[in-house]
Amino acid sequence: MIYLSNSNFTNQEDIQYFFNAFDSSKLNFLEKYCTTLNYNIQNGNFNYNNKTEEENPEYINRKVYSINHIPEELNGFQEELENYIKIANKTYNFSLDYILDLAYIETYEGKHPLDWHTDIGSRYPWNKRKLSFSIIVNDPKEYEGGILEINNGSGNGIIVPPNNKGSLIFFPSFMLHRVTTVTKGVRKSIVGFIGGEPYR
Question: Mind giving me the DSSP string for the chain?
Answer without folding.
Answer: ------TT---TT--EEETT-S-HHHHHHHHHHHTTS-EEEE-SSGGGTT--TTT-TT---EEEEE--S--GGGHHHHHHHHHHHHHHHHHH-----EEEEEEEEEE---SS-EEEE-S--SSTTGGGEEEEEEEE-S-GGGEEE--EEEE-SSSS-EE-----TT-EEEEETTSEEEEPPEEEE-EEEEEEEEE-SPP-
